[in-house]
UniProtKB/TrEMBL annotation:
GO molecular function, one term: aldehyde dehydrogenase (NAD+) activity
Domain Aldehyde dehydrogenase: 23-489
Domain of life assignment: Bacteria
Keywords for this protein: NAD, Oxidoreductase
Listed EC numbers: 1.2.1.3
Record's keyword annotation contains Oxidoreductase: yes
InterPro entries reported in the protein's UniProt record: Ald_DH/histidinol_DH, Ald_DH_C, Ald_DH_CS_GLU, Ald_DH_N, Aldehyde_DH_dom, ALDH7A1-like
Protein name: aldehyde dehydrogenase (NAD(+))
Length: 508
């Protein structure tokens, strides 16, 4: 037994359904969590059955009635303590993320840091859930708006950020007075159990009602129950565009609210005026970090023709230095893909790219031999392509980087925008005119547009999400909290007359 599993009290868990301190038994199927690092079975959870799901929703609804009455700063104090508990568990939780999901330990720890950061952000917010006040057109009237808790929030998260994405949603939802039901990816279910165990202790110390933090586990079916459930006014879903379209449709069908954060096809433009050495780090980390399994991973480089040869040589040299292997070993840059299905997708994309005319500058392939027994380790690769190839329009969750040439900035921006997805984008340039054009209304069409940093590694303080097939939702910082509350406009008449708006006369 690995010590971090013990530290997180994951030794003998097979529960996958909880309303907080209570763990419910289930007749659902067993979900095995295999590590892509070494193929070992880390643990099991039981999928939530319908009965368990109903019990969870009932508890979350009941808890909401009490929780929404707690003053927001008091809810914030509870979230502050969660942040403290996460600081204490950072090392163990970071290792679990790395071991269950396969990202490098540095990135596993970075993910827990994102959780801590969003806790801090949410604590501040708990005293700032501001509404505007307006000037009424009628004398003796006061008009303002206030934000009320929304209800039970359903959170569906993906394997690639198995803990942080939940925290972006739940920490904000909690200070906003909502209760949460979280369905983690069936590919990383132990992460949700570990988080629930950490939160449960903090809640118990503070007398938080049972049902404020709930977890359910399972596959598509559980996600469908949530999406179709009118008792969940908001579904926040992170994952593939295919999944998001189904969730969005189901939630819209019942006039619910959805917050969708889906696929990306993120590009970096390398201008003739770029600092090439600095750009290299952003490009390589963006493309191979998390083995290309971030929704913000860099998938395309659009390189000015005058620096194309120089920069592609630099890239090839950098790729030759990458060490691939056990992500818990800090000497390695790249860990495994999540599972062998992901390896198949990677191989299929390489094959499709070749058939469509792509030429590989750095070849891919599946690694074999000692240390690679899980069959999930692949070589990050680089293909020279043209932007119209169908594979270049697609998000493949793997370390495949497509590179292409451009001549004018207008052309580069058009190439960057001409994909179905619209999450993250960047330009590397020291030329102010180019940078400003890229950020202008005629520039990048993405939710995130950066200058002289890469596409991945967004900070929690900004609103996170994107346009087009990325789903349009914004999570995390800025005013994303408004997703988790309902707005109410209030007008109060403190006179003895009842003037009507718009000057309407209505005399009895
Ligand atoms: C995701 O991949 O779903 O910007 C989230 C980043 C991280 C979040 C990625 N802060 O890469």
């Amino acid at each position: 037994m690995k010590d971090f599993l013990q530290a997180l009290r994951l030794e003998a868990t097979n529960a996958g359904t909880s309303t907080g301190a209570q763990w419910l038994s289930s007749t659902g199927s067993q979900l095995n969590s295999y590590s892509p690092v070494d193929a070992s079975l880390i643990g099991q959870v039981t999928a939530t059955d319908k009965e368990g799901y109903e019990a969870v929703v009932a508890k979350a609804q009941e808890a909401f009635v009490e929780w929404r009455q707690w003053p927001a700063p008091r809810r914030g104090e509870v979230v502050r303590q969660i942040g403290e508990a996460l600081r204490q568990h950072k090392d163990a939780l970071g290792k679990l993320v790395s071991y269950e999901m396969g990202k490098s330990l540095q990135e596993g720890l970075g993910e827990v840091q994102e959780m801590i950061d969003i806790c801090d952000f949410a604590v501040g917010l708990s005293r700032q859930l501001y509404g505007l006040s307006m000037h009424s057109e009628r004398p003796g009237h006061r008009m303002y708006e206030q934000w009320h808790p929304l209800g039970v929030v359903g959170i569906i998260s993906a394997f690639n950020f198995p803990v942080a994405v939940w925290s972006w949603n739940s920490m904000l939802a909690w200070v906003c007075g909502d209760t949460c039901i979280w369905k983690a990816s069936e590919k990383a279910p132990l992460c949700s159990v570990a988080c629930q165990l950490i939160v449960q202790d903090v809640f118990a110390k503070n007398g938080v009602p049972e049902g404020v933090s709930c977890i359910v586990n399972g596959g598509r079916e559980v996600g469908e129950w949530m999406s179709n459930d009118h008792r969940l006014p908001l579904i926040s879903a992170t994952g593939s565009t295919r999944m998001g379209k189904e969730v969005g449709k189901a939630v819209a069908g019942r006039m619910g609210r959805s917050l969708l954060e889906l696929g990306g096809n993120n590009a970096i433009i390398i201008s003739k005026d770029a600092d090439l050495d600095m750009s290299l780090i952003g490009c390589v980390f963006g493309a191979v970090g998390t083995a290309g399994q971030r929704c913000t991973s860099t998938r395309r480089l659009i390189i000015h023709q005058s620096v194309y040869d120089t920069f592609s040589k630099k890239l090839a040299n950098a790729y030759a230095q990458l060490s691939i292997g056990d992500p818990l070993d800090s000497n390695n840059h790249v860990g495994p893909l999540i599972d062998t299905d992901a390896v198949k997708n990677y191989l299929n994309a390489i094959e499709a790219c070749k058939q469509q005319g792509g030429k590989f500058l750095v070849e891919g392939g599946v690694l074999q031999g000692t240390g690679y027994e899980s069959g999930c380790y692949v070589k990050p690769c680089i293909a020279e392509v043209t932007p119209d190839m169908p594979i270049v329009q697609t998000e493949t969750f793997a370390p495949i980087l497509y590179i292409m040439k451009y001549d004018t900035l207008d052309e580069a921006i058009a190439m960057q925008n001409n994909v179905p997805q619209g999450l993250s984008s960047a330009i590397m340039t020291l030329n102010l005119r180019e940078a400003e054009q890229f950020l202008s209304a005629a520039g990048s069409d993405c939710g995130i547009a950066n200058v002289n940093i890469g596409t991945s590694g967004a900070e929690i303080g900004g609103a996170f999400g994107g346009e087009k097939e990325t789903g349009g939702g914004r999570e995390s910082g800025s005013d994303a909290w408004k997703n988790y509350m309902r707005r109410q406009t209030n007008t109060i008449n403190y006179t003895n007359k009842l003037p009507l708006a718009q000057g309407i006369q209505f005399n009895l």
